[in-house]
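Blinded run. Sample ID left blank on purpose so nobody reads anything into the name before looking at the predicted structure. Input follows.
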Amino acid sequence: MFFLKTKNSKLKTNTGFTLIETLVAISILLIAIISPLILAKEGMVSARLAKNQLVAFYLAQEAVEYVRNVRDTNLLGEVNWLSSLGDCQTGLCYIDAQDPFFSSAINSCGTECPELKKYYPDVNQESFLYSYESGDPSGFVRNIRIENVNGNSEEVSVEVEISWDRGQRSFSVRESLYNLR
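Blinded prediction complete.
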């Protein structure tokens, strides 16, 4: 038997990409690029939320410490232990801790307290404080309420609520203070 061998005895197959293969390759490439970007965005959102929660905690603690300081100063001055906190006992109030005078630092705010502002005490604006007088809007609102506990004039409950992101997020602290005489 005799066989002829020819050059083109094998059929040629397509060696290029088909449209489906190209779409699959592009999809895989997009997933590889977009996934880290989404993770980075979510990480930044989480970091911002954590920062704002930390600031809210410290702003709430500052108000409680200020009320405690007023109580202690009143006790040392031999006056009623809550005498400088009258506006806070009748409804919502705000305290400007940057104000050195107790009487002008505590103000009633009716139904809604004003937004805290970022005040830059140094020329380089490297650091800032929170105040109500001047500065850039901070997005934080601090509401303070002081109430007698069970009609007892020897114990009050100090509640501080901080809200931010236009009221979408909030943080609250409650502490009991006692007349130490």
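Unblinding after everyone has recorded impressions. The two ends are 124 Å apart (CA to CA).
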